[in-house]
Amino acid sequence: MGIKEAISARHMVRKYTDRPIPADIVAKLNARIEEINKKYGVNIALVTNVELSPIWGIIRLFRAKGVKNYLVLSGPDISNIEELLGYTGIALVLYAQTIGLNSWWIGGTYSKSAARRNCEGTVLNGIIAVGYGASQGVPHKSKTPEEVSRYDGNAPEWFTNGVNATLLAPTALNKQNFMIVGKGNEVSITCDNGRWSNTDLGIVKYHFEVGAGKENFTWK
What we know:
With 220 residues, this protein is α/β, with parallel strands linked by helices. The chain contains 8 helices and 8 strands, in the order ααβαβαβαβαβαββαβ.
């Protein structure tokens, strides 16, 4: 499975089996984390084989089950860190899908103090549960391409493909409050989702790049 296929296959999964992540899969995920941390200057960390209680706080009271592995999204205190962690976090989510792992992006309702024990970054911007899901999840309700995009003139295929990929992206509370605007080979994206606008912006940008092909456009 490639990243494009992972975009379609990935759905939020809240319940996980007891199957541990094998050492070779952990090694692959850690290698990709190290590569991303070095390239983008973030401090994402993988934590494996832990019990629920130290990290989940009130989230254990509802819906979470069997989660024992997670990514901690953290980085330096710079102006675009939330967008950067959205971008790199979704890159890891989709990579995890390609190697057979399910995931659940969690922005709140977890113990931030517990998460900080496993990261070096100044800014903490959520965690991502990973593991083998009790199911593969289900597609979320989605807006139409016309509701989230506009193009000046006849939209080229790459733009349409990019927009369709963004509609499969996880956004906070599944609001999909973003707008993609294209003209020629220039594209801009804005997000209006309150506290999570910048994180969503990074996620949506990554999805658009995968769907459209980075060689076909430039960000405005």
